[in-house]
Write a structure and sequence with these properties.
This protein has a single domain, classed as Jelly Rolls. The strands form 2 sheets. The protein has a 6-stranded antiparallel β-sheet with strand order 2-3-8-5-6-7. The protein has a 3-stranded antiparallel β-sheet with strand order 1-9-4, covered by helices on one side. Helix content is 21%, strand content 31%. It is globular, with a radius of gyration of 17 Å.
């Protein structure tokens, strides 16, 4: 947790840094090709390998600044559905090493709007997990320039209807 003294930096809260989750379409496509290649050849995945599911995509955050203090999440989802965000500890190289299950971070961020809810109702989320997840992203920014995430779209949620970012100070 951030103490009050940590908040009194040279940057005022109005100068918050917004990091937007962007789909990495090239990496998503490479991971989809891995799945189809295994299916075509009849081979099995490596022991511990995590294959991309049809309702998942790879997103990334680029850290222009390494010193961040997590402030809050910003997300909007038009319509209904559930979105889960899983951080990945792997730092991909251009030759695309396979994603392994052990590289998936905890906690997982989840937010949703149920089908019976009015479309303009606020999204629901697991607040403690999302807070811890945001703080973990800020910690990893200290040693990275980029971080990757698996976003899963379920129960009618679609990538085109999503906007997701984190505010940092």
């Amino acid at each position: 947790t951030t103490s009050e003294s940590d908040m009194d930096t040279t940057e005022a809260p109005s100068n918050s840094i917004v990091l937007v989750f962007k789909e990495d379409t090239a990496l998503t496509e490479m991971m989809r090709l891995r799945v189809s290649s295994l299916q075509r050849s009849g081979q099995k995945r490596q022991d511990g390998e995590r294959l991309l599911l049809p309702h998942e995509a790879v997103y990334r955050l680029d850290f222009g600044i390494q010193e961040l203090n997590f402030s809050r999440w910003n997300f909007s989802l038009s319509g209904y559905g559930r979105v889960t965000i899983t951080g990945i500890s792997q730092h991909w190289t251009p030759d695309l090493t396979n994603l392994m299950t052990r590289q998936l971070l905890e906690p997982i961020g989840t937010f949703w709007r149920n089908t019976g809810d009015p479309e303009d109702s606020p999204l629901k989320w697991l607040e403690a997990d999302m807070q811890e997840f945001g703080e973990r992203i800020a910690e990893l920014a200290k040693v990275r320039k980029v971080m990757y995430f698996l976003l899963a779209f379920k129960d009618g949620a679609e990538a085109a209807n999503l906007s997701c970012s984190v505010d940092n100070q």
